[in-house]
Every structure is written in structure tokens, then in C-alpha cells.
Fold:
Amino acid sequence: MNNKFLIDTLEGLTAPNKYLKSCYMYDATGDNLFQEIMKLDGYYLTHCEYEIFEKYNDEMMTIFSDSTEKFNLVELGAGDGHKTKIILKNYEKSHKKTTYIPIDISENILTLLKNDLAILHPDLQIKPIVGDYISALKMLMNSEEKCKNVVMFIGSTIGNFLPSETEIFLQELTSCLDSGDMMLIGFDLKKSPSVIKKAYPSNIFSESLVKNILVRINNELQGNFELECFEYFFFYNPVNGLGESSLISKKNQTVNLLASNTEISFKAWEKISVCYHQKYEEADIEIFAEKSGFTVVRNFYDVNKYFCNSIWKLK
Structure:
């Protein structure tokens, strides 16, 4: 049994405002569901970032490899590496030694990614790490083999944090890096609420992905959640740019987690927050970089300026 999963689940479901950590949506089933979501026409985030990487991948690799003979390309939350493969397809042009280090909580998706890249780039050194971001980065920091790190945190994963949590996470990340290390980070920018809502519709894929966290609790923590008794709901506030995917209890009910001998009570229409989707203003990018010890090297945008990939350098 995954003790961290149990601890995090109990902490979230016994909080005054119930929540679950979005990372636990992902296993083999969750990975497949998210890949289907990324293919949907309304899910502009993937399409925009794909456009940016297709247009600017050579320039990005030139910036990454500047003033160094070798570097680690470290990807947090690598997933299937769909967009990263665009950057890597021309990595040979830099004539620099590159080690790709994908980090993800899902061992399944890392295995698939490593197998894919072994075919696409047989000469590329790949060192996957299963685990959470900060722990994995600390492992790298303590490694005997030191070289420049370029950390990729793409796909607007930063938006899954609440604003109050974002600064803390970035400062933790900074503590794992050295001066001169870089980061490529994705920010989903504020835009028409109608465009944003189309990215998180109430369809079978979105609902199944969010409910997959309940499936995992049932399977791995001996829970007895009845999935049909919870409703998927997405809300977006255009004033502060915060979106939220949640599950709503349709009735008064009690759920048991036999793995911890715990009963969790829900009131009718009580919410479980599962995933945040923060949208940003361009000025926020500079502020976050400065507060966490970085300087902004360059920002890249899609044609509609829906999305920004920003390269930062640690002072």
C-alpha cells in the first residue's frame, strides 16, 4: 500500500474544506484519459504549447546549451513527453551532451516514454525518476556527477497550485538548483472565459479523469466510494483567474477507508476540490521569476497569446 497516498488522502478528506491532490488522478488509466483530453479541439493548452515548440524549438535548445558542453534536461511531470519530443527532435544539432531526466509520479507513463525515446533517439541518455518533483530534484542535487540543469515545467502544471502555494513551490525548486541553471515554465494566460470553459467540459474524459482518484482510493486504500454519487463540476472566476475541477456529493453519505479504519461523512452538495487551473497575466511571470531568484531570459507565445513558455535563469 502507498502510505503517502493514504496520508495525503486522509489529510485532504478530513480538512474543513475537503480536497484531494490532483497528482493521484494519474495511473495507467488516468494517463490514457489525459491523453484523450489533450486531443480534444477545445483543449487549447496542448495545441498552443505544441505550436510554440514547433516554431521555437531550435532557439530554445540554443539557449539551453549556451556556455556549456553538457546539460541535464529535467522534466517535471513528464507524462507521455508529447511536446518534449518536439524539442528533443533537433537536440543533435547542438552537438552538446544531453541527458534527459523525466520525472513523474506514474511509473507506467515513464516506461512508455523511455521506450518511445529509445526508438526515436537511440543515442540520447535517458534517466527516468519516479517520484515527486522536489524529492527527485534533491536526488539530482546530491548526485556526484554535476552539470548544468535545465528544468522543464510545462503544460501549465504551475497552474495546479493555488497562488499562495506557487511561490513556496518555486522557492523549494530554487533551493535544488545552482546559479546558472535554467527553467522552461509554461503559463496559461487569462483570456475569454468561454475559451477556458471549453477546455474543461463536463464530458466522459474529464469526468472519468477526476473520478479516477476515487477509483484509486477504492482499489488501493480499500475505500467504498460510489462514483455515481459524485458529480464532476468545473468553475472559473475571470476576476482572479482561478479555475477549479471538483467533485460534488449528490447526497448525505458516509464513505469508509478500511486501510485506515476511517469513516468520512459528506453532506449533500459538499465539494471535494481536486484540481486547480490558475490563469495568469503576463506581469505575473516576471514577478514569480524575480521572487524565486530567477531572471527572465525570453518569453515565447502562440499566435493568439493564449499561452506563454518562459525561459528563466537562476541568478
